[in-house]
Every structure is written in C-alpha cells, then in structure tokens.
Amino acid sequence: MTSIPRRAALMAATCLALAAPALAQAQEAPQPRITVTGEGEVAAAPDMATVSLGITAENAEAGAAMDEASNVAEALLARLDELGIAAADRQSSDISLRPLWSNGENNTARGITGYEAGNILTVRVRDLDRLGEVLGAVLDDGANQLSGLSFGLQEPKPVMQDARRAAVADAMDKARVLAEAAGVTLGPVLSIAEAGGGYAPAPMMEMARAAKVPVAAGETVVSTQVTMVFELGGAPE
User: Fold this and answer.
1) Can you point out the beta strands (E) in the chain?
2) Domain 29-45+156-232's class?
3) Are 221 and 42 in contact (CB under 8 A)?
C-alpha cells in the first residue's frame, strides 16, 4: 500500500511536469514588434465660408444704443434674405451692452458718459462666388466689424477619407523601410489607431475680386495621423 506522503509527492511531481511546458512558454521572449506613426494630408478647394459680422452703436441712453444696434441687425438679416442666405446659415452669436466711462481728468470723478451696444452675427456663405458681394452688401447696410473669416468644406468626409488612406500608406512605407534597414521581415498589422485630424487654411497666390470686397479663398488642408503596430519576423531568406 502506498503511503500518504508518497502519494502526495507523486501528485506534486505530476503537477510540476504538466506545468513545465506552460511555464516555459510564458518565459519565452515576446514577439518583436514595431510602432510607427503615419501622416496624411490632402488639400482641397473650399466651397463654403464662415464670417462674423459685428454691429456696434453708441448712445447716451442704454436703451437707445441697444435699439440702434438691433435695427441695424434687422436690416442685415433682411439683406441676407435678399441675397439668398438661408436662415439655418446665420446665427446671433453675441449680444452685448456696456457702459462708456469718462477718464476722470482734471480732478473730476469718473462717470458713465454713455453706452455701447453690440451684436455679432455669424453667417455661412455656401456660394463662394458671391462672398465678396455679401460682404460688401452688409457693410453698406451698417455692419462696422468683420472678423473670423474662415473657409471650409460642406462635405469634408470624402477628403478626410483620402487623408486617412494617405496616413496609413505613409505608416506602412515607414515600417517597411525600418524593417529592411534592420534586416528583418515585416509581419502583419497588429493594431491601428487614429490620432485625430484637422483642417487648416493654405493660402493661394491668386486673389479673385468679387463685387466690392477682394477675397482669396486659398485651399483647405485636411490632415490626420495614424499609429500602427506591426509584428516583426526574422531575417529574410
């Protein structure tokens, strides 16, 4: 009859024998890999502009200043209607009223001398051929501030897809060059992650004059980055 201590020793030996392959596999070196970042950039002609139109009015009375700014804003909205700018493409982005103070010179106390009212209207122009006409018209109708002119794409997705393809191609090209230089083969892709994209204006040398205001639309550059991880093999045969 086998004693209990002997049976325990046999069981322990068996467990160690079964665990040995798994332990050896766990201790093996991880498969080498390489991580690269690719960049993609595509330039496209913009087909939309966004501009902020400002109206400011001063008056000794706060209500009168606000009424004057509001009247000009109403006139601008009516003109935008005439120009075919859809209601969805214009938005009041800021309405303000602030006191105007005297400097307190000649030993006089500072005091409020009047008020300044402001109204900011953000407008999208989807027909760039008429952008100069739109800007000239709103200036004639009382807008006294222009700011934040930017160009963009009404449908940016196709251009962004091209930028993503370019970024992946760039990452794969970098990985192939690095693997070749290191004397190893490039294995399959283990992961792909996008680092984010964006838009940036790229100026053109040519300026088109439309109606009263000269406008240079330039180009819109869409860019993105991808990070790719590849498995590496041994030396090529």
Assistant:
1) 33-44, 48-59, 90-101, 112-125, 145-152, 186-202, 208-210, 213-215, 219-232
2) alpha beta
3) yes
